[in-house]
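User: Study the chain.
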Amino acid sequence: MSQHQALRLHVPEPSGRPGCATDFSYLHVSAAGEMRRPPVDTPHFDTRDLSYGLIRVLDHDGRAVGPWAPKLDTPVLRKGLRTMMKTRIFDARMVVAQRQKKISFYMQCLGEEAIAIAHALALEQGDMCFPTYRQQGLLLGRDDVTMVEMMCQLMSNSADAVKGRQLPVMYSFKRAGFFSISGNLATQFIQAVGWAMASAIKGDTRIASGWIGDGSTAEADFHTALTFAHVYRAPVVLNVVNNQWAISSFQAIAGGESTTFAAKGVGCGIASLRVDGNDFLAVYAASQWAAERARQNLGPTLIEWVTYRAGAHSTSDDPSKYRPADDWERFPLGDPIQRLKTHLIGLGAWSEQEHEQVQKELEAEVAAAQKEAERHGTMLDGPFPSAATMFEDVYETMPAHLRAQRQQLGV
């Protein structure tokens, strides 16, 4: 008989389940200001420590400390806080609208607002983002995309620019550098790399920013994207939003248990950073560093944003079935809005009174936008785009079999 012990299959488990408080010690949180900031031309293998530590700027008292502390003007910080607040209000109203059957589906970014909003500050006009469904902050911080347009897409009404062809929250705004969101997870990562390669081939100056969740890193497209980005030194920022949960699967199932998602970039020859995604200043600083590398033809950067999905995965999900209900309140990286608010109050550039006032102003602004969008119809009562639109914008000349189908439909 064999003298070897029986083999056992390891199946990762989360460190907290309903009724049991989560032990967040698995996060390996570095102190604010502790991580070094290397030159942008540093080789990938010299970022190994940055892929296992955690880049943070704001300390527990809201002070900006350490080498990653960016020089951002107060008006920019104030706008960042307002945009995060607006995004959270927007999300809350759209969740209610879904419960009222005005939209069919919604996905909020509660607790993750700082990532997209601060990242956008490091991008320039013409850069292209390839987002997932939780980067609405990329749009809500802009002046050339209105909330009414976004809401009309959610309601699939007569003013929906994509004519009801996309699921709600899957926006498409070419003018804003916001590539059409894909419902097939991970496809946007390899598309971002391809777009960045094309920009380099043309001798352009624009870079790409690709987005993926921790769960989707288990898809083959993630690894293919890293290979192409490394081999061709694509001018792209590869963002991995590690919000701890992919629907009901803990991030360890995707391979984040004994290593980090950032470390996977280093292993593929890509400079990589692991960053506190709830720290607005750290997000901006890391994004700026990565964008500068891309613009200087120094190759791609992979950034793991450590955050927490405070809400449900979507309006079809009930997180109380698979994780403790108070996890977000206990998450060691806190609330991104509260942290930036504390920082601004410390600078004398914000106050509790102004915060309450801005909250009311933004609530009124979002409510007014919803009222305007609903004038074009909702999923509850229409009107909807004509059924004829499903046959349009596909072929330059409509094939005979589609013409026949359209005639049979009577549109």
